[in-house]
Amino acid sequence: MPVTTQQIMQWKQQGRAIAALTAWDYALANVLDEAGADVILIGDSLAMVALGYNTTLPVSLDEMIHHAKAVRRGVQRSLLVCDLPFMSYQESVQQAVHSAGRVLKETGVQAVKLEGGNPTAVETVARLTQVGIPVMGHVGLTPQSVHRLGYRQQGKSQAAGEEILAEAIALEQAGAFAIVLEHIPSDLANQITQKSTIPTIGIGAGPHCDGQVLVTADLLGLSQRQPPFAKSYTNLRETIAQAVRSYTTEVRERTFPTD
Ligand code: KIV
């Protein structure tokens, strides 16, 4: 049975942890889906891990839609959420409805994610929810604001923590079905998780969230640089390099192919 937004909200009530990962193409998404990822996010981190940009800012809505369509074709079960990229929703609520509507209509994903918890973001989430587009929020470190925030941990002071908590609650009240908490102190993530009725999905936010998400390039050991909180479960960079070295050696030695 395909995972739905209602299902992951129920899992929070049942204490069933949610395992989320990112994907950017058909083959990867197909493996993640078959291996049991509950949520697959077509994150705008694909700008960095799949397209080679230094930040997430350059990726366009058309590019996100292109990647989301490929991911959709590989997935049967996982809930699919697609990031709205930088400047595809910040100009106005109308722009956000237009962009999110395109994402749902053209790709077949079930939900969108957008960054921030300021009053405009909250109003945007309310409007998208009202027109039937499920929204995942994202507070704490928001990479689309890298030129304002850097990649530093957020919410370290009492005041900054209270602000992030207030943003999370406002997003929930506006109708968000889940919320990503990125790079904030573990006790703040715990507090938000206790106070909210929607699932919190942590990345660099400690063990107390209702679920966790990793950028799959980091999980696989494919990234050249990765954040301090990411965990690699294998070193695919080395595995691929070893396979390529074996292949090039065999071709040059004329031992592959054989008759
Ligand atoms: O773009 C992305 O991959 C994300 C995750 C880090 C949550 O937003």
What is the CATH superfamily label?
Phosphoenolpyruvate-binding domains
Provide the structure class: alpha/beta
What is the annotated CATH architecture? Alpha-Beta Barrel
How many helices does DSSP assign? Answer: 11
Query: How far apart, in Å, are the first and last alpha carbons?
Result: 46 Å
Query: What summary fits the major beta sheet?
Result: 8 strands, parallel, barrel
Q: Total strand count, please?
A: 8
Instruction: Give the domain tally.
Output: 1
- SSE sequence, one letter per element: HEHEHHEHEHEHHEHEEHH
What name does CATH use for the topology? TIM Barrel
| Mean pLDDT metric | 98
Percent of residues in helical segments? 40-55%
The small-molecule ligands in this entry are: 3-methyl-2-oxobutanoic acid
Q: Assign the CATH class.
A: Alpha Beta
What topology, given as strand order, has the largest sheet?
1-2-3-4-5-6-7-8
- Indicate the low-confidence ranges by residue numbers: none
Strand content: 5-15%
Radius of gyration, in Å, reads 19 Å
Shape: globular
Task: Give a structural overview.
- It is a single chain.
- The chain has a single domain, classed as Phosphoenolpyruvate-binding domains (TIM Barrel).
- The radius of gyration is 19 Å and the shape is globular.
- α4 (61-74) packs parallel to α5, α5 packs across α6 (119-130) and α6 packs parallel to α8 (158-174).
- β1, α2 (26-34) and β2 form a beta-alpha-beta unit.
- The protein is an alpha/beta fold.
- The model has no long low-confidence stretch (mean pLDDT 98).
- It contains eleven helices and eight strands.
- The chain has an eight-stranded parallel barrel with strand order 1-2-3-4-5-6-7-8, surrounded by seven helices.
- It has helices at residues 5-14, 26-34, 46-49, 61-74, 93-107, 119-130, 146-149, 158-174, 186-195, 216-219, 236-252, and strands spanning 18-22, 39-42, 79-83, 111-113, 135-140, 178-182, 200-203, 211-214.
- The chain binds 3-methyl-2-oxobutanoic acid.
- Residues 22, 41, 43-45, 83, 180, 203, 213, 215 line the site of 3-methyl-2-oxobutanoic acid.
